[in-house]
Amino acid sequence: MKYMLMFFETKADFARRTETFETSPYFGAWMAYSKAMADAGVFKGVGCALKSPETATTVRVKDGQRQVQDGPFADTKEQLGGYVIIETPSLDTALEWAARCPAAAQGAVEVRPVLEGQAN
Amino acid sequence: MDALATVEKVVRDSYGRLVAYLASRTHDVASAEDALSDALHAALVRWPLDGVPHHPEAWLMTTARRKLIDAGRHNDVHTRAGTALQILSETSVAMSETESFPDERLKLLFVCAHPAIDPAVRTPLMLQTVLGLDAVKIASAFLVAPATMAQRLVRAKHKVREAGIPFVVPDPHEWDERVSFVLEALYSAYTTGWDSHNDVDSVHCALTGEAVALARILVQLMPGEPEAHGLLALMLHCEARADARFDGGKFIPLDQQDTGRWSKPLMQEAEASLRLAAAKGRAGRFQLEAAIQSVHASRIAGHAVDWGHVVVLYEHLLQIAPSTGARVSQAVAIAKAGRPDVAVNVLSEIPEQNVRAYQPFWTARAYILKSLGRADEAREALTRAIGLTEDPALREFLAGQIS
């Protein structure tokens, strides 16, 4: 089954993205995590990191009018920082991978099954 | 009617095993229940005409399986179901009409208590899928509207299928945690009924009998797990004293209960379970709670309660499963062991917000203060306890304590 892992990170985590890529433990942890998933065969390359939540813009269309709002959809402490789509035999394995994610320690990881059908 | 009686018997004896087997093959509890329900309906129609089959259970299994396969053919949205149905039809070819099928209830119980399932619905899910209880009866015990309970159960089963919760027995590295979820959900089934006044007019019905039945099943399914034996022992000790808790509608506290009204056979069964658990050499929360009940039960042999031992058992329990309830009960035991001065300090160390609306704290405090001769403070605490008491009989008893 395919699952999307959505990584919700704290403000402090997002701030660490300014650190030097080659030496920062923040990036090191993420690289190690991605590699582990790839080596295990669960991650096939679908996923990416997202820029910080203040770069987001939220769009709605109400009564035919486009409403554009500065900022992310939800005003929560932890914000979406990235995602991957993994394929595992069941939810349990997906939950294990979610727990290994660097985001899980300070923030949270949502695990949602992908709706598979004709499109996928 | 022969057919009806047979159907009822098979449902009583085999419902859980039938659902568990079907659900474990399709990874879908809801469709397994629906298929079985259809099969039972078909049995009620056909058996009076054709006669009851030699192997009624196998007949139901085959019929349910056929209905599942047919339902799957019409439903091609879930592509995953294709593989599951393939497994199902392959199994049906391999299995003859007379063969019995494996007992998959342990997997089903782990699914019901899976971490991804809302804790509030784990107990209802177990009761419905393993014991076949209907949502109305479960709702009544949990003081929830039937429609609400039915909706929660539907949502939970939907999650099982859609999120891909596996039908497996957990690996050793997560066994203890996963087992504790199963046991807690099972214990919740028991305690949900425990406080209800044994009032025939009461709409709120207790599920203590059903909880004990499930605990007995669990012990059969995981005989090597000491905590399962511990939970059964705990429940049986409480069941053994059920008749002595009320006398003509009046509440009787544990230390004043007539031991003649305690069930010796149930206590013996409880002790046997506790011995089995102890033999495995792995202490645990439910074994300790059962051991505490066992000390209380020693009154049946004419012994005085060894309160010092109770205090030690609570200390062990607090190490592995700290809780306000256990701390309060320990304080009472310390007072009864002759040290109310220590007991009152144990109580005052508990954070205030944990006990603000926790009735047992205030009854304990009242008792301990009374032992210390602090009558006015004791009366205050007792009044607070009465204000927090839900059960009218208990309220009446406590009111009678104000001297």
Secondary structure topology:
The complex is a heterodimer of chains A (120) and B (403).
Chain A: E1 2-9, H1 11-15, H2 25-39, E2 43-49, E3 57-62, E4 65-70, E5 79-87, H3 91-100, H4 103-106, E6 108-113
Antiparallel strand pairs in A: 1-5, 1-6, 2-5, 3-4
Chain B: H1 2-26, H2 29-50, H3 56-74, H4 79-94, H5 105-112, H6 119-131, H7 135-141, H8 146-162, H9 172-194, H10 208-221, H11 226-240, E1 246-247, E2 250-251, H12 264-279, H13 285-297, H14 307-320, H15 324-336, H16 340-348, H17 352-355, H18 359-371, H19 375-388, H20 392-401
Antiparallel strand pairs in B: 1-2
Helix pairs in contact in B: 1-2, 1-3, 1-5, 2-3, 3-4, 5-6, 6-9, 7-8, 9-10, 9-11, 10-11, 11-12, 11-13, 12-13, 13-14, 14-15, 15-16, 15-18, 16-18, 18-19, 19-20
Main attributes of the structure:
heterodimer, A: four-stranded antiparallel β-sheet, two-stranded antiparallel sheet, 4 helices, B: 403 residues, mainly alpha, two-stranded antiparallel ribbon, 20 helices, elongated
Provide a descriptive summary of the structure in words:
The complex is a heterodimer of chains A (120) and B (403). With 120 residues, chain A is an alpha+beta fold. Helix content of chain A is 28%, strand content 35%. Chain A has four helices and six strands; from the N terminus they run βααββββααβ. In chain A, a hairpin with a 2-residue loop joins strand 3 and strand 4. In chain B, helix 3 runs antiparallel to helix 4. A two-stranded antiparallel ribbon of chain B has the order 1-2. Chain B is mostly helical and 403 residues long. Chains A and B meet through helix 3 of A and loops of B.
